[in-house]
Amino acid sequence: MAKILLVEDHEEIWDFLSRRLKRRGYEVVLAHDGEEGVMKARTSRPDIILLDMNLPVLDGWSAARALKSDAETARIPIIALTAHAMSGDREKVIQAGCDDYHPKPVDFSKLLTQIGAALGTPAAP
């Protein structure tokens, strides 16, 4: 079972995503701001991180850079979750260290496909 760190500050989104991901067989660890996300990535060793980019305390851009610059977390794939869906935003999140990009509102089936691709496994049934 893959472990997903979900770093999201909006309750409706983390509740929706965590429940659906758990039903698909994933273990879900929650963090509600960027600083907590970086700390939980270091302590819980997730297989993948779903990272909101607009977070309190430490934004997702800074959290992604911190995670990718740390040898202990650099190899963990990060999928950016963001309401920023403008031209060039995908490139900005990739430059910040994210491995993929998923615009909000979340398309759950597409997100599952992205998670599977990042993990090198088919999406959970």
Give the key terms:
42% helix, 125 residues, alpha/beta
Q: Could you characterize the architecture of this molecule?
A:
The chain has 125 residues and is an alpha/beta fold. It is 42% helix and 19% strand. It is built from 5 helices and 5 strands. It has helices spanning 11-23, 34-44, 60-69, 89-95, 108-119, and strands at residues 3-7, 27-31, 48-52, 78-82, 100-103. A 5-stranded parallel beta sheet has the order 2-1-3-4-5, with helices on both faces. The two termini are 12 Å apart. The model has no long low-confidence stretch (mean pLDDT 92).
Describe how the helices and strands are arranged.
Elements: E1 3-7, H1 11-23, E2 27-31, H2 34-44, E3 48-52, H3 60-69, E4 78-82, H4 89-95, E5 100-103, H5 108-119
Parallel strand pairs: 1-2, 1-3, 3-4, 4-5
Helix pairs in contact: 2-3
Q: In a few lines, what is going on in this structure?
A:
The chain contains five helices and five strands; from the N terminus they run βαβαβαβαβα.
